[in-house]
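[job 0412] stage=complex_fold ligand=beta-L-arabinofuranose status=START
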Amino acid sequence: MAKKVVKRYLFPEDYMADPSVHVFNGKIYIYPSHDWEDDSNVEDDSGDQYIMKDYHVLSIDGDPMTGKVTDHGCVLRKEDIAWHGRQLWDCDVQEKDGKYYMFFPMKDKNDVFRHGVAIADNPAGPFIPQEEPVHGSYSIDMAILKDNDGEYYMYFGGLWGGQLQSYRDNVGIEDPAKNNTPDSPNLPHGSQPSLPSRVVKLSKDMLQFGEEPKPVQVIDEEGKPLAADDPHRFFEASWTFKKDGKYYFTYSTGDSHLLCYAIGDNPYGPFTYKGVILTPVVGWTTHHAIIEWEGKWYLFHHDSVPSGGKSWLRSLKVCELTFNPDGTIETIEGIDE
Ligand code: FUB
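[job 0412] stage=complex_fold status=DONE, emitting structure tokens
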């Protein structure tokens, strides 16, 4: 049974989505996508309606449910990135040795998603982009885990418009700009294993992959990868965090509109599927971040209620998340009314 909980819209002043959230220097920072509407929002299965052109940083003074939200303004624009094509989608930021590294996906001039890195001296930016995308990078939706041993792991990938189906073993098997819909011949079907997200350890300088990306297996209690027709299989929007020595891998199921989670013993997995975090919200996409703040856990996500259901105009929300004593998560109801 999904539980109804109190939720807060964080930034009614503008449409923002895909929150990545971290506590830096004792303060909560949100790194969202900045949704945009003009004549070119065309709704289709390949995500052409998500035409974001820049990133803002938000921060919260104190408690996520009540603290004042500050917009630190535009911290990176598409035009500032030498290799830019279009669509600045879900980014994430991590700190290393006093520098802040923003990892972002954007289509290059051939309409192929690559990962960029931009660097700042403080968590509120501005972020200065590197000249080139990360070598060998592909697909979308990065989330960076800083592990206790000082290593940083990036989780990434997304189906359909996220282009993950165009790669096998980190090599393109077709032009990733093509077949960005559910009809792609490269998507598995029925009881075939679903396509996994990827995880990669970052290089010491945080600017490249430090190894070949590996598949993130989400398995059932019998150890079998979730099947392509399982409504709980991975689609996009990876997130990770650690709690009580366990690694939680959380993600969106895309066309079944759920946020789900799986638990593992190390950053590479496998992760055993455990359940639904959030039932469908208003709007096609669902996306999230989970953090601990002063002993409580919070789910940051988005929906399209304030825009009257326009899937490309989403609004940031937060609510408290409850863990059961065995480490499982209480399912939250996505619709508030
Ligand atoms: O915001 C564009 C895309 O929509 C994101 O990359 C996905 O996770 C989905 O929220």
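The longest strand covers residues 16-24.
[job 0412] exit 0
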